[in-house]
Amino acid sequence: MARRHTYKTSVFWTGDRGEGTQGYRSYSREFDISCNGKPVIKGSADPNYMGDASRHNPEDLLLASLSSCHMLWYLHLCAASKVVVVAYEDHAEGVMEVGPDGSGQFVSATLRPRVVISPHSDVVRAERLHEKANALCFVARSVNFPVEHEPEILTG
Question: Which of 3, 39, 47, 150 could pair with 53 as two cysteines, CB 3.0-4.6 Å apart?
């Protein structure tokens, strides 16, 4: 029997300027994301849709979810495979297409992890574990667009 995990998040729109949504420009796109016992994330729409560029937008958060899920699986697999990671960073990029009617969807994401492993670790194994991490990542398995990887493995 499959195990199930349930996640709960609350989103609160904080952008009422006193007029509600009387007009397209009458309200702010700001919102708060709240998960019990965790710091609040201040969100907004993408600036292309009248959002606040200083806040995270849903597209940022989707890409961050893909990147961080991959990283966590990768670190786990490295630990289990005796590949010692001493540093990890990712500069991910997602591509979204918007149709004439305003609807849109991500069409691809590319993760670019830069991983530093100990000098005694196997570089080839470290590279191959990215494929396995992608296959196991909960978020990557849940999206309907390709998630590519361009890892860089360094020893240090």
Answer: 47
